[in-house]
Amino acid sequence: MSTFLAERFEQNRPHLRAVAFRILGSASEADDAVQEAWLRLSRSQDTAIENLGAWLRTVVARVCLDMLRSRRTHREEPMDEQPWEEPIDDEIDPERDAVLADSISSALVIVLDRLTPAERVAFVLHDMFDLSFDEIAPIVGRSATAARQLASRARRRVRGGSSDGGADRARQREVVEAFLAASRSGNLAQLVALLDPDIVLRADRPAVESAAARQDRGAPKLAPEIRGARQVADALLGRASAARPATINGDAGLVWAPGGHPRAVFRFAIRDGRVAAIDIATDPEYLRDLEIVMDDSPYS
User: Fold this and answer.
1) How far apart (Å, rounded) are the C-alpha atoms in residues 137 and 155?
2) What is the predicted pLDDT for the residue at 87?
3) What CA–CA distance (Å, rounded) separates 5 from 47?
4) In what order do the strands lie in the sheet with 274-281?
5) C-alpha 157: how far from its chain's center?
6) What's the Cα-to-Cα distance from 262 to each of 60, 113, 146, 242, 286, rounded to whole Å?
7) What would the CATH number be for the domain defined by 166-294?
8) Number of H helices, E strands in the chain
9) How far is it between the farthest Cα atoms of the chain?
């Protein structure tokens, strides 16, 4: 490893720390991710990296994505510090101070923790560091369009965090279970009453394509985006009847899981006791990143 390359790495270190810290929420884990990037650079046989900064950022983001997924699998938090708290150093490190100065509020952190790892990475890289979706796509292993959808879903949840977060978990579950009961009973009026007049329903491409294939068997039409309580109710009536209540990334939702394997999720945003937004997803890669706990419920 040449001295010149090492110096260029050090020039990029503050930015890499900033990226890792905002994705992971832990200064120590951020340092680990940056160190891993250095190790990979030192082992790299490619001596003609055209844009070292972009290459390193991609490596750090991928390492962070793996760390988030591992964190979900093992359900562990860093032991040496609380998440999103700057560590106290005996000596002031101007470089570290520059990285961590623009801290993120605890309210936002709570919402970020409810995102899937891929959503979180896409949101942070695009909305906080202005990366294009063409750049984000290979990091999260999706197409540019899918990366845009990840960031969009994350943004909706972040923006709705302050309004939706006030509803306690029990009330969320009550609304979701009432929604499921109305869907199963075919009670259109009851279902409409549970929906905010300005509700928006969004479905990913696999869900829309699957619904289109079943339309000849009487399945309701599903579009990528539907707005309005009556329109959403018409599209959803009976659609969730086979789903079961579940906790999805900490929020009340519904999951269709034939044979115990999640095939579709319904994620809800609740506002003032009504459903303000629903996301339907069937993309296996997206489902893989979710933390799903099936609930014991009278409707399950």
Assistant:
1) 17
2) 38
3) 9
4) 225-227, 195-203, 274-281, 264-271, 251-256, 244-248, 292-294
5) 8
6) 30, 21, 20, 12, 11
7) 3.10.450.50
8) 14, 7
9) 71
Q: What is the pLDDT of residues 35-84, one digit of tens each?
A: 999 999 988 765 668 899 999 999 999 999 999 988 766 554 444 444 44
Distance, CA of 237 to CA of 183 (rounded, Å)? 5
Is the torsion defined by CA of 14, 16, 19, 21 positive or negative?
negative
Render pLDDT for 137-177 as a digit per residue (tens, 0 to 9): 999 999 998 899 889 888 877 776 544 444 467 888 999 99
Q: Which of 230, 299, 292, 300 is nearest to 267 (CA)?
A: 292
- Label the pairing between strands 195-203 and 292-294: unpaired
Count the residues in the chain: 300
Sequence ranges of the domains in the chain: 3-162, 166-294
CB-based contact 24:125 (threshold 8 Å): no
CA distance 270 to 173: 10
Q: What is the pLDDT of residue 83?
A: 41
For residues 111 and 137, what is the distance between their CA atoms, to the nearest angstrom? 22
The tens digit of pLDDT for each residue in 123-133 reads: 999 988 989 99
How far is the C-alpha of 235 from the C-alpha of 208, rounded, in Å? 11
Share of the chain above pLDDT 70, in %: 78
- Fold of the domain spanning 3-162: Butyryl-CoA Dehydrogenase, subunit A; domain 3 (1.20.140)
pLDDT value, residue 201:
92
- Inter-residue contact 15 to 57 (CB < 8 Å): yes
DSSP 253: E
